[in-house]
Design a protein that fits this description.
It is built from 15 helices and ten strands. The chain has helices at about 35-40, 50-60, 80-90, 105-110, 125-135, 140-150, 170-180, 200-205, 210-225, 235-245, 250-255, 305-310, 310-315, 325-330, 340-345; strands at about 15-20, 65-70, 90-95, 115-120, 155-165, 185-190, 230, 275-280, 285, 295-300. Helix 4 links the parallel strand 3 (about 90-95) and strand 4 (about 115-120). The chain is globular and about 60 Å long. Residues about 1-10, about 35-40 and about 250-265 have low confidence and may be disordered.
């Protein structure tokens, strides 16, 4: 096999690598693992040495944003040492947290570790909505307090919100909260029914028609908001933008997408699973994204670069001609691609059509 570092045909490195630093968490969110399960799973978290080796492998061949996620990453004792290692290796780092553990001292440690941005999850615009979903009274106020402490420490922040039936009317209100606490961005996620999310899909998933309405609403809000707004796990958002005659106007208002001019999360294509992003589990497994449970390899057994460059799963995801159903014949597949995780959930095939998109492409050739 050719050396990937010198192979002119090598596939470009990932833009984003999400690392599940630990399965441990201090919350019991209804769309995630239960706490007792997480306690059991975290025994198989990668060791410090294993994690350091993975970070070095990523930095040796690519320059992605490395997102420290979880579980709750702040429950991992060596998280700051590993963040510094990634920073010193030339990687841009971000932290995805529920925010409840961040006081002034913790915010200072996060700043000192060099995280370029910290995202805090809000699953509603008020305590009643958020706390019911997070199953911890007071978690909304703790998350807001964490955001305020981060701003005081000079760390750029981002609000993440999973849109589901319990909060789908609150999008403008969540944006208002994000602006009030000084966030620079708000990312809205559509619920993907995998893992424990599958158990609540019937009660919480929006219909395809509701999904279209909310994504159109997000597009209109993005035209006037001072925040950087992004729809995540919602690739057909980019089809909606094109249909409304819009481009990526956020670039004009937010040069580089993040402080320092780095294009933090400034992506203008839909599903990037296995093409621009990947997910590394707490056990070292590599998946196309955190919601698509199709194993592409394991960093404890293979070099990260070899997995990214040579995995059959990734190679198939990178060939849009393999998409089937209406995604395969859609003229927007180059900017959308459909959510491969929802396709897998609905059809058992990650190359099948996106089930939560109402657009009907023509029957003719692309």
């Amino acid at each position: 096999m050719p050396d990937d570092a010198t192979d002119a045909q090598a596939y470009p490195g990932p833009r984003l690598v999400f690392w599940e630093t630990t399965a441990a968490c201090n919350l019991e969110c209804v769309h995630c693992r239960r706490l007792d399960v997480a306690h059991e799973l975290c025994r198989s978290d990668m060791t410090t040495e294993q994690a350091a080796r993975m970070i070095d492998q990523i930095a040796a061949f690519a320059s992605p944003i490395l997102v420290f996620s979880g579980g709750e990453p702040l429950m991992r004792p060596d998280v700051f040492d590993l963040a510094v290692r990634a920073r010193d290796g030339g990687l841009i780092t971000a932290l995805a947290t529920n925010g409840t553990m961040i006081d002034a001292a913790m915010a200072d440690r996060i700043a000192a570790a060099g995280f370029h941005r910290v995202s805090v999850s809000l699953d509603g615009a008020d305590a009643a909505t958020h706390d019911a979903f997070r199953k911890l009274p007071g978690s909304f106020d703790l998350a807001l307090s964490g955001l305020v402490h981060l701003q005081a420490a000079g760390v750029p922040t981002q609000v993440n919100c999973t849109i589901a039936r319990h909060n789908d009317e609150q999008i403008p209100d969540v944006l208002a909260v994000a602006q009030r606490v000084g966030a620079v961005a708000a990312h809205f996620f559509l619920l993907v029914p995998v893992g424990c999310g599958e158990q609540i899909a019937e009660d919480q998933m929006l219909t395809p028609e509701q999904t279209e309405e909310r994504l159109t609403q997000l597009h209109h809000l993005s035209e006037s908001s001072a925040l950087q707004i992004k729809a995540t796990c919602a690739p057909h958002y980019y089809r909606i933008v094109r249909q409304h005659g819009g481009g990526d106007r956020r670039k004009a208002r937010h040069p580089g997408g993040a402080p320092g001019g780095h294009p933090m999360h400034a992506m203008t294509k839909g599903c990037l699973a296995g093409t621009g992003v990947c997910f590394v589990s707490h056990k070292g497994e590599v998946f196309p994204c955190g919601y698509l449970p199709v194993n592409a390899g394991n960093v404890l057994e293979q070099d990260f670069r070899r997995i990214w460059q040579s995995s059959e799963v990734f190679e198939r995801l990178r060939d849009a001609d393999l998409l089937t159903g209406k995604c395969g014949r859609c003229q927007f597949k180059g900017v959308c691609g459909g959510c491969r995780a929802r396709a897998f959930y609905e059809h058992g095939d990650y190359l099948a059509e996106e089930p939560f998109c109402i657009y009907q492409p023509s029957e003719g050739p692309d």
